[in-house]
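Dear colleagues,

As part of the handover before I leave the project, I'm documenting each prediction I ran so the next person doesn't have to rerun anything. This entry is a single chain, and its sequence is reproduced below.
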Amino acid sequence: MAQSYEELPEEIWELILDGLGDDRHSELESLSLVCKRLLALTNRLRLRFTIVDQTYFIHGTISPLIHRFRHLKTLDLSKLKHGYLETALHEVARSSVALNLEILDISNHDSIPIEGLKELGLSNRKIKVLRCANVIKLRDEDLISIAKFHPDLEELDVSFPRHKFTISAFRNHSISELMITDEGIQGLSSGLKNLTKINISMNHLLTDNSLSYLSLNCLRLQEVSFIDCTMITMEGVRFMLHKSPNITSISMRLISNLHRYSSLFINPTTSGKTLSSLHFKDSDISYEFLEAITKSQIQLKSISLSNCKGYTIDGIWNLLYRYQSLEFLDLSKNDSLSDTSITGLSHYLHHLITIKLNFCKLTSKSLFTLIKNCPSLEDIEMKNTDLGKEEEEDTVMGIVIHPNSSIRFLNLSGNANLTDKCLIKIASLCPNLKLLDVSSCSRITSSIDEVLKVCPEIIHLGIEDCLGVKNIGLNNEPLRLKKVYMGKSGVNDEGLVGIGVRCNELVKIDMRGCFHVTTSAVKYVVKKCEKLKEINMMGCPNLHVYMVDWMVFSRPSLRKLVPPSYAVTSEHQRKLLLRHGCQICDK
């Protein structure tokens, strides 16, 4: 006799939810509404949570949520505004429920909430990862306080601060009171003995001394990213690789005097022995420098040479021949790459998982070669290339290639020569695609329907700036699409209604700048797509600006809405709709 879902043991339900994979947390909300038992189960299984302004507008506190989700490991406060950050940290710290948080994200704020972090540090010493990226005011004092109150941190992100200074600020304050300097990194590294990963990108005052402090004080350090730290030189990088015994990954851009060095290592036999990931960008790299990496004893798994100059195809050839177990490769903006060279190089890429060849002069032949010769490949980026050029297309369309079932993500945006015929051929070779982006491919018109037939697993579709695309198919065959980006495309009312008919799983749709959709079609999508959470209608001239209220009240799942014109919504209206769980945004 078959059991009902209510009779299934919790262990079985956990296996079912684990089977959802990346979609697990997005589905928990729906499952929690089924019955009390599933509500209790989903509460226990939720491991990460994002607090937004709606939470405080509706509840005035996050205390009930803390008591509800007692097993949270990740708390994201990066989307909070209106001064709620300190309040949220204090509530978590003072809660009677002892959350075992491991990851905390407080990015995108005006400053670091020192008092809140202090109180949280005293109540919860298990936080291992702290993200403070994109903060306006980031100072040495903040770094020292972070190390003091959270000494067990293993990962820290203080990248890309958004400094906003006035002339009077520089007159009245020392530089360390306004920005991060080497002294701040020295204090931080002295207090974080367990640090394994740090991102200090775009902190322009940091020098080689910062890398020295990290190397000497943080002996467990494995990953360091210092993109656009323009005062850091190759001397500092070489010192770090020589002194850090556990370093596995470094990422850099615009490193001074790199072209003067013939090797990344002070001592090739002892430096960087654990290094497996090298990411260079916008740098001059000599043939000798690349050859030294080739001859080193490192176990390289990932390398990026995006927009790097100075090296030759022979250098790349030797590198890939040496490291045939490579899993990630980025050769974007390399003018010397050709279809012929890709054919040769592909024979060394049997273990490759991700490749990026953006802004390279490569045609469809290169893409077909990768699909054919790289059995482990999952993610391909070939944006703004020569894919689909007429003089090449006829020569490759007849090539017999077996489908590659490993490929999941395909970004071909910006390929102005890509045709419907070529896209259908590509899609037929990637039957298990989950993401397809052909935005700004101006010759794409009627092929999307056929693509979705041969790739039924696609959940993310990008057709932005494709004026020739009027619809994604007008039949009733259901699709698994969850996210559709169709801004400034040619999709019309008939096409939008078709999306409503076929996409029951739709969570997000971006139709900004669509000139051919009207209010009736948008309302149809809102009615039909019961899981819809985000919709962007900015700049759609034929939409009634006053339908925003109706949309929020008609579709309770909506969490974010960008109206055709933000100016027509009043502050009172936005607050009212926020209390109903939907944030009205200007972008």
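The first helix runs from residue 10 to 18. The CA atoms of residues 215 and 240 lie 5 Å apart.

All the best with the project,
I.
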